[in-house]
């Protein structure tokens, strides 16, 4: 299929070009650092940032988090998340 925007520069304000289902882990970083997270089903998410800080969020289904975590911890995460990048 033709993509008239394939040569456009992709940045944090442009639409995501790919996605994956997040598998939370207490020991492994995400395979690709996302530009945002979509909440597939409600719950909590323990997100670790680039500096190692972990914050747990209470999330509603359908929410979009404009945060770029390096890890989603299994401990403290009950929400199902999709990463956009």
TrEMBL record:
Record protein name field: Uncharacterized protein
Species whose genome carries this gene: Yoonia vestfoldensis
Lineage: Bacteria, Pseudomonadati, Pseudomonadota, Alphaproteobacteria, Rhodobacterales
